[in-house]
Specification:
mainly alpha, two-stranded antiparallel ribbon, 12 helices, 75% helix, 1% strand, globular
């Protein structure tokens, strides 16, 4: 093995170790934050929470059915979106789309940021189509991220203004300017920047060749899915009787999802990251922290 190849492998290994350490630090920090909030707090009492749940009949067949319907609707939209995207290379039935979507979900649970989903979906197709399938899956995820960013930015701005978060507007402007600068740098050197063997330029070319209606419908379904799981979380908050207006609750939920989407984690530990962010955000409306963790879980 040449010296260049050895250095390249060492660099990749070091990068993977650093990323893993960052994720572990984030997970343990989130766990400690939740533990500290729940244990060292005289206001919180699990016995009172259980009494509240039983006294207000929160866990009923009707309520559980509504929560389950939200989940079914959420995944039905995801399966429809995948069927729509795959139609660009090979038309499949909704049954097949459902099988592929749920199968890839299972495979992605233990991988960071559900990266295993790409390979899992590609396996269902012959080798000559797999690169396009990976591209379509990436497009679907970017579309969902686009919906998250759109609503998240609106929610974040509303949250900052309404709850007067201790943030410096000058620093926010600096971060925004830096982000724009990095985006243009990324675009300029896109031929060197790749994701799963897709450069920005290749992805742009791939997207340009797709049917415009497919792209619009994909984004519409992504927005519909976002509205679905956001309102599922709102329903839980409403169910537990948290005293917050509909607008305030939704904007806090939007902010929570956009902040969580920026943190790389593994699905099985997602509740820790999401729980700690949700507890911090809903503290501005004096929500019971144990209830927020319960809703997130």
């Amino acid at each position: 093995m040449s010296k260049h190849n050895s250095m390249s492998l060492l660099h990749q290994y070091t990068k993977q170790v650093v990323i893993l350490l960052v994720k572990l630090v984030l997970i343990f920090a989130a766990f400690f934050f939740i533990y500290n909030k729940l244990v060292h707090n005289d206001v919180l009492d699990i016995e009172n929470l259980l009494y509240y749940v039983n006294h207000h009949h929160i866990i009923t067949f009707q309520n559980l059915s509504i929560i389950l319907l939200f989940s079914v609707f959420n995944w039905a939209i995801e399966c429809l979106k995948w069927q729509l995207l795959v139609k660009e290379v090979l038309p499949i039935s909704l049954k097949k789309a459902t099988e592929q979507s749920l199968g890839s979900l299972t495979a992605s649970i233990i991988t960071p940021n559900r990266i295993g989903e790409y390979g899992a979906k590609a396996i269902y197709f012959k080798k000559s189509l797999r690169k396009k399938i990976v591209g379509l899956n990436l497009l679907g995820n970017l579309s969902q991220l686009g919906a998250t960013l759109f609503f998240g930015i609106v929610g974040l701005l509303y949250t900052v203004i309404t709850f007067k978060l201790p943030l410096s507007y000058l620093k926010l402007l600096g971060v925004f300017a830096l982000s724009i600068g990095l985006f243009f740098m990324y675009y300029r050197f896109s031929s060197r920047t790749k994701f799963k063997s897709y450069s920005f330029k290749k992805m742009k070319h791939f997207t340009t060749n797709l049917n415009r209606k497919t792209l619009y419908k994909t984004f519409f379904l992504s927005v519909l899915k976002y509205i679905c799981f956001s309102h599922q979380f709102y329903f839980l908050i409403w169910l537990f009787g948290i005293d917050v207006t509909y607008i305030d609750a939704l904007t806090l939920i939007f902010t929570m999802y956009v902040l969580v989407s920026l943190v790389p984690t593994v699905f099985v530990f997602d509740v820790l990251i999401k729980g700690s962010v949700a507890m911090w955000l809903f503290s501005f409306v004096n929500a019971n922290e144990l209830i927020i963790v319960t809703c997130t879980t």
